[in-house]
Amino acid sequence: MSAREEFDSWAAEGRDKGMEDRHWHTAKHVLARMPVEAGETVVDLGTGSGYALRALRETADIGRGYGLDGAPEMARNAASYTDDDAIGFLVGDFDALPVADNSVDHVFSMEAFYYARDPSHTLEEIRRILRPGGTFYCAVNYYEENEASHTWQDNIAIEMTRWNRAEYREAFRDAGLHVAEQDTIADREIDIPPAEAFPTDDWETRAAMVDRYRTWGTLLTVGVTP
Ligand SMILES: C[S@@+](CC[C@H](N)C(=O)[O-])C[C@H]1O[C@@H](n2cnc3c(N)ncnc32)[C@H](O)[C@@H]1O
User: Fold this and answer.
1) Which atom of ligand 1 is nearest to the CA of 23?
2) Are strands 218-224 and 130-140 parallel, antiparallel or unpaired?
């Protein structure tokens, strides 16, 4: 199954909003760290419901936001959640970003980058579209150190790239981005039941759930163009 088919069906089932609810716990901290100034242009890669751009319009007064998604139904849903003319949604693939060279101030991506067919090439594409001094805020929950995430590949037909923290830094540098920051952002909002509630449908032990959300959470790697 292609990413387009897989995520079109997610959008049709309304799972875009479910992702927004879950990802917001840590995505909002990533967005708050971005050095975005009023009037700047931001691209959101794998935008899903488009919540990131709606938030940046409210909190940072961005001038233009473009949400790119490979699934037309995702982009269509995202467009339906806002009537803000400064935000637009594009259908496109991480392989070839439909964006001009040196035209974007910041790129954000939450829980999407590892679906790229060739993530190293996607980093080159990001480097190409960013202006000098532009930033890429790359947030992922599927990564090597987050052991609980390893099983996710079993539930999805699209091949996912599972880099570790060092591999993210190395790939950013290989694409010509300086690594300004790398951090893990814990999910402090998800409810973790008391020990006696385990095992649950999703978790064998409380310790495993704590490790997934409170210890590892979301890996943020920040790249800056020279
Ligand atoms: C797990 S969702 C995350 C959505 C949103 N960023 C969030 O935080 O809720 C991943 C998104 O990336 C998109 N996507 C996956 N592979 C893609 C690709 N190769 N090119 C463009 N978009 C892609 C999917 O259609 C989906 O909307």
Assistant:
1) 8
2) antiparallel
**189-213 mean pLDDT:** 96
CA distance 92 to 70: 5
Give the span between the Cα atoms of 64 and 49, in whole angstroms: 17
Q: What is the mean pLDDT of the chain?
A: 97
> ipTM of this predicted complex?
0.99
Question: Span 142-166, mean pLDDT?
Answer: 96
- The CATH code of the domain that includes 168 is 3.40.50.150
Q: Is 43 in the pocket of ligand 1 (CB under 6 A)?
A: no
Q: Is 205 domain-assigned?
A: no
Helix (H) or strand (E) holding 158: none
User: Does residue 46 line the site of ligand 1, with CB under 6 A?
Assistant: yes
Determine if ligand 1 sits within 6 Å of the CB of residue 110: yes
Residues listed for the chain: 226
Residue 184 lies in a domain: yes
Confidence of residue 3 (pLDDT cuts 50, 70, 90): confident
- Minimal-distance CA residue to ligand 1 atom 21: 70
CA of 204 to the centre of ligand 1 (A): 28
For residue 195, being part of any structural domain is answered with no
Q: Is the CB of 94 under 6 A from ligand 1?
A: yes
Which of 21, 47, 91 to probe ligand 1 with, by most ligand atoms within 8 A of CB? 47
What is the distance between the alpha carbons of residues 222 and 109, in angstroms, rounded to a whole number?
Answer: 11
